[in-house]
Model the fold of this input.
Amino acid sequence: MSDKYDVIVIGAGPGGYVAAIKAAQLGLKTACVESWTSEDGKSQVLGGTCLNVGCIPSKALLEISHKFEEASHDFDMQGIIAKDVKIDLGKMMERKMGIVKQLTGGIGGLFKANGVTSIHGHGKLLANRKVEVTDKDGKATTYEADNVILASGSKPIQIPPAPFDGEYIVDSEGALEFDEVPKRLGVIGAGVIGLELGSVWARLGSEVTMLEALDTFLPAVDQQVAKDTLKQFQKKGLNIHLGARATSAEVKRKLVNVTYEDAKGKHEQKFDKLIVCVGRRPYTDNLLAEDSGVQMDERGFIYVDDTCKTEVPGVWAVGDVVRGPMLAHKASEEGVMVAERIAGHKPQVNYDCIPNVIYTFPEVAWVGKTEEELKSEGEAYKTGVFPFAANGRAMAANSAAGMVKIIADEKTDRILGFHVVGPQASEIVAQGVIAMEFGSSAEDLALTCFAHPTLSESVHEAALAVDNGAIHVANRRKKK
Ligand code: FAD
Ligand code: AMP
Done:
């Protein structure tokens, strides 16, 4: 077989593997290089951060821990008697690994079915679209391609005050692997990943303290929604300390001593484990030869235009390694766009319609603009809010906290933002994404028939509320 490809992808996460499959489906001779190796050192592992140590294992633990919490605390009041509910951590971890293995193995199957050649080793882009792959024994082979897609992803950021030690001070990956429930758990960073992992262990019994340097909780989220979310998390026992900057973490006698500063001064707190979740950095270690020609921006992201083209013709980059939100579905959308562009099509990613989700309980999900963004842009808008407390299905499901909030253009009524905190927000937000992709107005949603009783009726009512026409909640003003 010749070593010349139409497309070589470096990285088999949701950006890379999806790009490779799409390119092969479009008739391009495609290879995907991935360095991840199984723990026994024998085989290649596909799927990247998302499938192995990110989205999937975290959601497995969130689902299981949510069931455990419900059974432990919320069954009683519904008349279900479940005494002495216990968690078998080993079995829970086995289940998580089973799901991960099934999905990562599935990608190998998809590569075979679509004719993608999988190459195991570390890929490095050389000049003239050549890719050098070094295998686990150190043997290097060079391949040529007309197009190279860089999809090398990201890694957790380590901060000097709290260096990871893999046992007491861990990153998000370590936090998916604890072999017992820590009694006192510290989390540095109350962002999306910190909140999800903090929730898992709080539900399983840890006393969780989260230290967040910013004074504002979830600054990227619409603040009406963020404030409601914070209240609900605090009710659930997550101790979220805003305006608290961690300044050091030291392990002494099997405990982590953390110092932090807030408006009141310096403090010290001891934890059994500390998770550091202060964000992720683009991962480009040994990815680019000096003469590859690919440029990075000042924050270390590979520089690309709106179509994911780098400055070198035929070299593209997608996913966490480029600008934009670090989300699996954004990476995959970019992967598909690039494969189709290589095949001569002209698709674009609509970056205004990428949903964001925090998979806590309640879940938080949104797409489009927040009120704060619209205010700062000087846009005139109107809002419609409907609380799940007035939704029969949410009540029946014992999850009636939260709301749906729709923001629409004051004049045209076009939906500009769609925000949910509440049960199944991750699923409900898809309705907002579809509406916005189709350029819908709030009235379009208001004129749509929704099944009763469903959580989605809150979308209908929020859309009605935009024009003060909600039925099941008092409107702020009389309808004109
Ligand atoms: P990655 O998934 O990081 O994949 C990159 C791959 O490239 C890796 O397999 C790596 O081994 C390989 N690689 C790197 N360099 C080389 C090289 N030189 N040669 C060969 N191979 C190389 N996102 C969501 O959308 N939803 C979620 O619920 C969600 N939950 C998350 C939970 C956690 C705990 C974490 C850590 C992340 C989560 N994310 C979530 C983010 C999501 O995982 C990333 O946005 C996504 O994985 C990015 O995909 P990617 O393909 O760009 O990179
Ligand atoms: P995200 O970017 O969503 O992953 O969130 C990471 C969070 O960590 C951000 O909200 C940061 O403000 C927060 N953070 C970063 N450094 C520190 C620190 N030293 N102490 C407390 N919080 C921090």
